[in-house]
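ugh ok fine here u go
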Amino acid sequence: MLPESEGDVAHVAAIDAEVVRGLKPASITSAQLGMEVFLDLAISPKWKMTAPDQRDLAHREYLEICELAKDPQAWGFLGLFLAMGTVPASVE
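structure:
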């Protein structure tokens, strides 16, 4: 959700402050999963979700990444942030 007014900014900031306490960062690499599984998880569905006017470019870039990933020295990294939080009673 993007804030639309100053009140929304305060609301999002309050939620973000609460969420940070429960932040659980993790990293996933192609070394852990294998490159094919890594690419499936990290990028394969995402080019399909781009705006229609940018979809062709996104697909070409996806195919280029897949070609680069065929190099035995290729390595991928994905940062994953899982968070839990509550909305403070004063914001509800």
